Amino acid sequence: MSFDLVCVGFGVTALSLAITLHERGALDNTLFLESQPASKWNPCSSSAGGRMRTSFLNDLITSENPRSRFTFLKYLHATNRLALYANSSQIQPSREMFADYLRWCSASFQNNVNFGKRVTAIFPVREDQQPVRSWNVVFSDSVTGQQDSVTTKQVICAAGLQPFIPAPLSSIMDTSPDVVHATDCLQRISSTMRTTGGKCHFAIIGDGQTAADVFDHIHGIRGDHQVTWFTQDPVLRGTDDSPFIMDNTRKPSSKVGQALPLELRRRAIGDGLCTDSVSAIDRHLLMSIYEVQYAQSVKESDANKWKFQVKFQHKLVGAEKVANGKVRLSFQRPEFEEQLFGCNIFDLVIAATGYERTEYKKILAPLLGMLDGHQVTVNRDYQVNFRTGSCGVGCGLWLQGALEGEDVSFRSFNLLAC
């Protein structure tokens, strides 16, 4: 089969694209290939009741067309929640509500999505040494493994993120049910509490918002449990979400900033800004965690006896299974470079260590010889920079969802000459 556009994945980025194409009447000959068996929109893994960082106006379409039937306000009206939300006086919707908004939007595009189809590779279609005139997108059925392919002139690679597990934990994760990524931690926390009768010790590994969410969630559970949060950062850092920074990100005044994709503008504003830091934490949550620490210090001066501890500058270097299905963790601290601390035994270890963007590398592997350089780069419009003359008119490939990774960069000089 042949399409005008094939999009790899049906996550938030692809859903936003589907809405935009629908608004422009260009969705008819578009196909989305999604590896999941069905649409699945979940709130934040550890704090579904928490709120989004941005206003409801930053939904999937309002900035382009406030009159669209896919705005967040339209969703509230269609689900009889408009008055309820207005009475809450909250400009930031809850994560659970926004996840429901995404489910509501995605229901309109089921006919354009093939679920359970994992894209494995993209091959160029051309004759002899002529420019590429189309792409052959190869995918396999997630259940049967049967392979198939479609051709298209344009491809958008919006493959989802994959949970990242540090090497010490990944080495025992397959054989130990007591190690879990933050994405799937809610149910595991509950089951561990039931199994141990509430007398359990949790460990959180990681920096930033997700780790803080998990810590706050466990603290809010009534019981005789403990939690220790190990972070490599020397302090907990708050977000810098002032209107000045947000305005400069969306509408940069410099030519260099204007030439950058949105995701990379934050990095160009300046080093050290928490807007670009993966370890930044919402300020209200940061203050809540500090209050927890302060309240414990009033009752107990020895921080090592607190039920809810934050251990700074602890680098995870080892993990092993011990008796009764527990896990022992070893850490290294900067002041003791050669000494390991391995006396930490936990009932459940939660890796709040973010995600990695590696799926696109496998998909684009057959195209490496066409790249303009030694690594994947994109221009201001997210289009992959192939060698000049490699692609024919109207044929192109775009990469989205991987721009904030260290291995995907932006080639600014291509645009400064335009």
From TrEMBL:
InterPro entries: FAD/NAD-bd_sf (IPR036188), Lys/Orn_oxygenase (IPR025700). SUPFAM superfamilies: FAD/NAD(P)-binding domain (SSF51905). Pathway: Siderophore biosynthesis. Its EC number is 1.14.13.196. Pfam families: Lys_Orn_oxgnase (PF13434). GO terms for biological process: intracellular iron ion homeostasis. GO terms for molecular function: oxidoreductase activity. Keywords: FAD, Flavoprotein, NADP, Oxidoreductase. Its cofactor is FAD. It catalyses: L-ornithine + NADH + O2 = N(5)-hydroxy-L-ornithine + NAD(+) + H2O; L-ornithine + NADPH + O2 = N(5)-hydroxy-L-ornithine + NADP(+) + H2O. PANTHER family: L-ORNITHINE N(5)-MONOOXYGENASE, MONOOXYGENASE. Belongs to the lysine N(6)-hydroxylase/L-ornithine N(5)-oxygenase family. This is L-ornithine N(5)-monooxygenase. It comes from Capronia coronata CBS 617.96.
